[in-house]
What we know:
173 residues
Amino acid sequence: MKAMAVVGGLVSGALVVAIAAALIWPRGEHNATVPPNGGASPVTNSAPPPSSQPAPIIVQNVLPVPIGQDERVRNEYVQKRQPYVQYLTASFPGVINAVSLPSELDTIDITLLRSDNEPLMRVINEAVVPNAHRYGIRRIRFFVPPAQPSMQPMKPFAECTSDYVGMWTVYRL
């Protein structure tokens, strides 16, 4: 019984190798010519002239690269959060400087133009509380640009998180 399994495995493995070799192995074009005397032995020219370049390989059916489950979920979250990002940038042009999507799936980063309480609470009351849950967002980090624009990183200003009931809590940093 084991011998039959081994033989079956070898035969199927050889078949897979043969199919792969037939698909991968380059097929040269052979020009067969008949001598002018009408002889029966054709002459085959399989080597290209030394000065010619090889013909480019043209791929007709390109298979898409398979993506993993983690990347598929991440792409779905990015697609889900993108309309919210567009809404924020369009609705608060004088308040929000930039909106970015960090690596955490349920988080967005918002850079405010000022570090006052008024713009922060305006964004939270008008955009975060009524809309963020619909887009799968449970945490929003607020940043302000540094006082002197240079190579300094953005300064964390506040963070807004949601619990499982949908209540938002604001933390000033």
